[in-house]
Specification:
Layout: H1 11-22, H2 37-42, H3 46-49, H4 71-75, H5 86-93, E1 98-102, H6 109-120, H7 139-148, H8 150-153, H9 164-170, E2 176-180, H10 189-205, H11 223-230, H12 240-244, H13 246-258, E3 262-267, H14 271-278, H15 283-301, E4 307-314, H16 319-322, E5 329-333, H17 348-357, H18 364-371, E6 374-378, E7 381-385, H19 388-397, H20 406-416, H21 422-429, E8 434-437, H22 444-454, H23 459-462, H24 465-474, E9 479-480, E10 487-491, H25 495-505, H26 508-515, H27 519-535, H28 538-552, H29 561-576, E11 582-585, E12 593-597, E13 602-610, H30 622-625, H31 630-640, E14 650-658, E15 664-670, E16 676-680
Parallel strand pairs: 1-4, 1-5, 2-3, 3-4, 13-14
Antiparallel strand pairs: 6-7, 8-10, 9-10, 11-12, 12-13, 14-15, 15-16
Helix pairs in contact: 10-15, 14-22, 20-25, 27-28, 27-29
């Protein structure tokens, strides 16, 4: 059996681990298979990583932070690595020097950033001198470069090395600064401020060679200023002015030492925004935090003589708020026109390539249903993408897992069942169009609103339904079909997201609260299914249609395919769990619900549809023509009920359609016999 390696975009997970560490009510465990040299090293405390050695009284020699290991190191040579190295060329070929890329969690943002950094950064030898790499087309020279450069080895056999002229010009040519905002979490501004001082210390210590640089012999360069950030015994005394100009100072020192402008990398730019949203900070602390970050990024990007290019990663468009004082930022949001669409997530051909390499190409259709469906556009053309973490997790575990932290899901689930949100999501889940206005310039008040909704559950008072839908879109819960600047036409991207919404909106408590159905109506519905299982005739189908029609005549009528399925699944589960029967929403493409009544040896296979014109009713042969396979059904049963698979002697196929004017159409087939049709409900 082939061993499958796990390749993971750690983008959202690193943020989550740090964020949830602050929330004592939640805990996120990192699976053992995700351990890497980077992971193990990151478990060291700040004190251990920066622990000073025994020194003389005149100098403070410290242990250098090892930057030779990175996320890209862990991935580049794995059997199921997907080559995205041409992104480096795209980034440098674009005339935009300051680029912000925002995409949903776990689409490869951190991995791509680290890949670009390892390609571009100047490497330093043991004496603190830049390694001169004369990369040219001479084979002997290339072998010498491979011997001297640890970074060059990471790109052997990759597409970027085919662009020889670009490699000769840019490989290993730039001083780089890499900082990660994932640690900027705290209960108040003071805690976040302390965390940023630690980030600055780590950034300076990545360039420990500067401590012995000849730079300090030149006029205008102050080593004491450098040591204030660099020395682990001194950085805690940094004041607000020092913090605001810390990255600028580091860029100035690197520019002076190397004589070249710096390439700046800032990952997880919006983690402080997530902190404000998911952990309640005072309004004053929010303002102070945002103002601090605006000054840091604004000061940094105004220093054109020090900073050559910059790349920022984020999930939310809110990150643009942090860059408000910086000019000339080119933002490429995932939901709109994107300059680099093929480099984030996996395209269909890449998924097939990975499955074929794993010897599991037959799984493609199932993966396509569960995980694909994210859209972005490039030059007016739609590009459909899969979540990269989800695909690699499936290759590793064989499970279709959701790709959001449990804490995020729990808070969102509290809101989506609200009366203002539920109808919109139900509409989208029924494959209908739902267009919301797009807020291009969110501000601090929007952050405060989301915080009150998600942290304090003040939904009724503060919820702006359309803005919240945009927030969900940026988190990856929807895809846009009309990526314009002023509105978003939303769709459910895949069955994984569908199952998240179905879990909430399909719960019995949520349904009863929303539809206010009586006990008598619920009993009538479930009894009609039991009667149909026993009698298996057209009269029993008519009775089922009557019971569904009765449910639709409540204060909130059943108007969509999703609402119909949600109600019927919930009520059938409530009833039949007491009679040794089970109901489950199937993730197979061929049906929506499997209901097994064990003591009657009957399995219902049910599809739900919404129909809006008489022509849509002409589907009498659709179920038989799909050719349901008895063996496939048995395999599906065992997958859903692994411990106690009931004996099934009879199969009842139902296609339940909901139309206008409270009209229900049921297409009915028993053991693949001739299909009959029942209509119930009359036009108003």
């Amino acid at each position: 059996m082939k061993k499958i390696y796990y390749i993971l975009d750690t983008d959202m997970k690193r943020y989550t681990t740090l964020l949830l560490h602050r929330f004592s009510t939640f805990q996120l465990q990192r699976p053992k298979f995700m351990e890497s040299p980077t992971t193990k090293r990151s478990k060291m405390s700040d004190h251990e990583m920066n622990k000073p050695t025994q020194t003389s009284s005149n100098t403070t020699e410290t242990r250098e932070i090892n930057t030779n290991y990175s996320y890209y190191d862990w991935h580049y040579n794995q059997p199921f690595y997907v080559d995205k190295t041409l992104l480096i060329k795209e980034l440098l070929d674009t005339h935009h020097e300051y680029v912000l890329i925002s995409a949903p969690p776990r689409f490869g943002k951190t991995l791509n950033m680290d890949m670009a950094r390892r390609f571009l950064e100047i490497e330093i030898d043991e004496d603190g001198k830049a390694i001169e790499l004369d990369v040219d087309e001479n084979e002997c020279c290339l072998k010498e470069v491979q011997t001297r450069s640890k970074n060059f080895k990471l790109f052997q056999g990759k597409k970027i090395l085919e662009k020889k002229e670009f490699v000769f010009k840019h490989f290993g040519k730039y001083p780089t600064i890499h900082v990660n905002f994932s640690e900027l979490v705290g209960h108040n501004f003071e805690e976040i401020f302390v965390q940023f001082k630690k980030i600055l210390n780590k950034a300076f210590r990545q360039h420990a060679y500067l401590e012995k640089s000849s730079l300090w012999d030149r006029v205008g360069y102050n080593k004491k200023k450098f040591m204030k950030y660099f020395d682990p015994m001194k950085y805690a005394s940094l004041d607000e002015h020092d913090v605001k100009y810390g990255l600028v100072n580091l860029a100035e020192f690197l520019h002076g030492h190397h004589g070249k402008r710096v390439y700046m990398f800032i990952d997880d730019l919006d983690v402080p925004i997530h902190t404000m949203i998911h952990q309640y900070l005072s309004i004053n602390d929010k303002w102070r935090t945002i103002e601090l970050l605006q000054h840091i990024t604004g000061n940094l990007l105004r220093e054109y003589k020090y900073i050559g290019r910059s790349l920022f990663n984020s999930t939310l468009k809110f990150s643009s708020l942090i860059l408000q004082k910086a000019s000339d930022i080119s933002h490429y949001p995932f939901m709109h026109e994107c300059m680099f669409p093929e480099f984030y997530g996996f395209e269909e051909a890449e998924v097939k390539y990975l499955l074929e390499k794993a010897g599991r190409l037959e799984d493609f259709n199932e993966i396509k249903e569960k995980y694909n469906g994210y859209n972005t556009t490039f030059c007016g053309s739609h590009i459909k993408l899969y979540n990269s973490w989800a695909i690699m997790n499936y290759l590793k575990t064989g499970n279709f897992d959701v790709y959001w932290p449990a804490s995020i899901l729990d808070k969102i689930k509290q809101t989506i069942s609200h009366d203002k949100i539920r109808p919109k999501i139900a509409k989208i889940m029924s494959n209908q169009s739902c267009t919301v206005n797009y807020c291009c310039f969110p501000d601090t008040s929007d952050i405060e609103t989301l915080s009150k909704i998600l942290c304090r559950n003040e939904v009724d008072k503060h919820l702006d339904a359309e803005f919240f839908m945009q927030f969900l879109s940026e988190q990856g819960f929807f895809r846009s079909t009309l990526p314009y600047r002023t509105d978003l036409s939303l769709k459910i991207p895949n069955r994984t997201v569908y199952s998240v919404f179905d879990e909430v909106l399909g719960s019995i408590d949520s349904i009863n609260k929303y539809y206010n159905h009586s006990t008598e109506l619920i009993d009538k519905l479930t009894d009609s299914f039991e009667d149909l299982a026993r009698l298996r005739n057209e009269e029993a189908v008519h009775a089922l249609a009557e019971s569904i029609l009765a449910l639709s005549e409540s204060e909130r009528t059943l108007k969509t395919k999703y609402e119909l399925q949600s109600v019927l699944d919930a009520y059938m589960l409530q009833k039949f769990q007491h009679v040794s029967a089970k109901c489950s929403t199937s993730l197979r493409a061929k049906c929506d619900t499997i209901l097994v009544i064990a003591d009657l040896h009957v399995m219902f296979i049910i599809e739900y549809r919404s129909v809006w014109s008489p022509n849509d009713y002409d589907t009498h042969q659709e179920i038989p023509d799909r050719g349901y396979d008895t063996l496939a059904e048995e395999a599906s049963l065992k997958k859903i009920f692994p411990e106690d698979t009931p004996t099934v002697k009879n199969r009842i196929y139902l296609q339940i359609m909901i139309g206008r004017f409270k009209k229900f159409i049921i297409l009915y087939s028993f053991n693949n016999m001739k299909l009959s049709t029942v209509y119930k409900g009359e036009p108003n």
